[in-house]
């Protein structure tokens, strides 16, 4: 173990300024803030070129060693150390051999909501904002448009310019393979998802072959909260008009119908789901307007039709945070001044620390649109936290990937400021 790692273990108490002093020195001397235990082991044992299988960084070590009985002064020192490491680029979301980020370790040790936790979450928010800016400023070249002259690959070794080594090729191939896997994954790519066969099965809507969970009945209480938000400002004149994007199992739409709105728009893109809606008679309901197709095409058309909503709910599948940011452009144009916008908040929900980072990010983004957001904390069924079992006490049995693993759900409710 290196001296940098040693200093993160808080062996000597009290934890005082010497710790900060030593840490700053190591970082100034050029030791990376992400220097891992595994790297140190390789250096100490003269192991070369072996790929690292995990990354136990100084942040992980600190998170594992913060004393439960730290005094206020000690806490201030530890926070200074965390901030110093983060300043020098210590990765807030890197994972160690146990697949844990520093935040995951803090959470397991009971530090959720502590100042240590907030420090990591705030660093995550800053990093995500920075990443977005960097990505905004980079012009990506589509693979197809790159004209590769195969003869020139690897030719420039003599004049000291680009050398295409086998390692480069392997890396390129690996990247291409990952990209292709993502494109073929219906949970990641909408065009693939919309061509994938679905089935309604055991209280869930899943992709037929792979068993990806598109919608599951355990989300019922979350849908009720979404529905209640949409009707929060309902007036006695019964002029209420709402839009739900993503029908899925129709859970929230059935709840909306019970509230008897004047008009109930539903936007749905998947042919199998649209067939189910037809079978259940949704196309013929007097107060229902079904917009068949992607919201990107269907909902934007409403902007020019003078249709405005008291409530908008968004819950789709295979889309990403960037898609929701695009939706905000439409929401501000379609929501009445007293209207409420809500959505299924599963952003980053497979890790609690990432979930907290996204809670802050989405708040910042909505604020940019003049929308303030509040979050009501709900407790999802405890079976969502169980790993798949044979005994039936996990909701994830037979589901390809658990898309939820947080003890608390942050139900969002956004309104104009
Ligand atoms: C998670 S389900 C919605 C569940 C729903 N809230 C309920 O209560 O049952 C997501 C739905 O969004 C649909 N969807 C996915 N992308 C879409 C898009 N771009 N436009 C419209 N619908 C979309 C999916 O086909 C799926 O039916």
UniProtKB/TrEMBL annotation:
It is found in: Cytoplasm; Nucleus. SUPFAM superfamilies: S-adenosyl-L-methionine-dependent methyltransferases (SSF53335). Its EC number is 2.1.1.-. Residues 186-417 form the RMT2 domain. It is an enzyme of class 2 (transferase). One of its GO terms (biological process) is methylation. The keyword Nucleus applies. GO terms for molecular function: protein arginine N5-methyltransferase activity. Monomer. Belongs to the class I-like SAM-binding methyltransferase superfamily. RMT2 methyltransferase family. S-adenosyl-L-methionine-dependent protein-arginine N-methyltransferase that methylates the delta-nitrogen atom of arginine residues to form N5-methylarginine (type IV) in target proteins. Monomethylates ribosomal protein L12. This is Arginine N-methyltransferase 2.
